[in-house]
Amino acid sequence: FDDYKKVYSKIADSLEAGEYDDGSYGPVLIRLAWHASGTYDAKTNTGGSSGATMRFHPEAGHGANNGLDVARNVLEPIHAQFPWISYGDLWTLAGVCAVQEMGGPTIKWRPGRADADASACTPDGRLPDGSKGSDHVRDIFYRMGFNDQEIVALAGAHALGRCHTSRSGYDGPWTFAPTYLTNDYFTLLLNDKWHWKKWDGPAQYEDDKTKSLMMLPADMALVKDKNFKKYVEKYAKSQDAFFEDFAMAFGKLLELGVSFKPGQEYWEF
Ligand code: HEM
Q1: Which of 39, 89, 224, 241 is found 20 to 30 A from 188 (Cα to Cα)?
Q2: ipTM of predicted assembly, 2 dp
Q3: According to CATH, what is the number of the domain 2-127+249-254?
Q4: Which pLDDT band holds residue 186 (cuts at 50, 70, 90)?
């Protein structure tokens, strides 16, 4: 555990990002952990964070992973310093660290991911497409083994970070404090008025009031769909409820497809 604690504190030190984005690598590290894990297919038990196959082509070149080289590069010197840790463990621990250091809940985590080679790369299309609606979002997350409540809780990570035209084509942050995890994503989604942004880029929403925030069509699906909206309302009302459910769902996400030792305990950093 002490060795992993050293890795954790190195990651925490490296979050500070100076001129980069909003001053933190935290959001892009969370996105790396999520995209490494969210390739999981429960039926075939393929994909997931074991393997860290995003290091290789073709997976590194999948459109959904644009820009995640930034996150991988932040972690590379840490891997060089602690070469015994697998990339899958390093990337997911970085996700845990980023959530916690940005004010989020404690995420239970344990090591056990083994690196694989390029032959284990997952096919393109396993990660969600922001331009689509609730049917697509359900297809993607049900495939991983999540339910509606978990989907909405996980989406609350969009309180953090921003879209980049050079990566996804979309532009801007979802909240006013994109390096601090709060339930703001839900309160804004529910209470603000949104209109289609007028621009040359892909269809996205913009808030009426400040025209500085954004929502993807897939975000808006969470208030258009009755069963999703129920949970948006719950999390808008209570940050504690959001944190509790987010911690469970994010912890589960990071373990999809990973086999642990029987009875292997969780660690908290
Ligand atoms: C960023 C889509 C779910 C965490 C983004 C971006 C898109 C996107 C298009 C912008 C990428 C860029 O241009 O840099 C979606 C869709 C989802 C989804 C369609 C599901 C319907 C999630 C989940 C998490 C997550 C489950 C984590 C639990 C993030 C974070 C960023 C981000 C932290 C900001 C990255 C940065 O600032 O560089 N997402 N996402 N997303 N996503 Fe998601």
Answers
A1: 39
A2: 0.99
A3: 1.10.520.10
A4: very high
